[in-house]
Design brief:
Blueprint: E1 2-3, E2 9-13, E3 16-20, H1 23-38, H2 46-55
Antiparallel strand pairs: 1-2, 2-3
C-alpha cells in the first residue's frame, strides 16, 4: 500500500492497482482481503465436479 501524492492511497495486488480515497479505506480493504484469504476453503470432490458437468 502506498500513498498517491494527494490522490489517496493505492493497494497493489500483483499487476492490479486499486485506488482508495483514504488510508482508512485502504486498510479496511486489506484487512478484509486477508480475512477472506485466511478463511477455510473447501475444494470440490472429483465426483461432484463430474456430476455437475453431466447435468449441464
Amino acid at each position: 500500500m502506498r500513498e498517491a501524492a494527494g490522490r489517496g492511497w493505492i493497494v497493489t495486488l500483483g499487476h492490479c492497482t486499486v485506488p482508495f480515497p483514504s488510508q482508512e479505506a485502504a486498510d479496511q480493504f486489506v484487512a478484509r482481503l486477508r480475512q477472506r484469504l485466511a478463511a477455510p476453503h473447501q475444494l470440490p470432490r472429483r465426483d461432484q465436479e463430474t456430476m455437475g458437468q453431466a447435468q449441464d
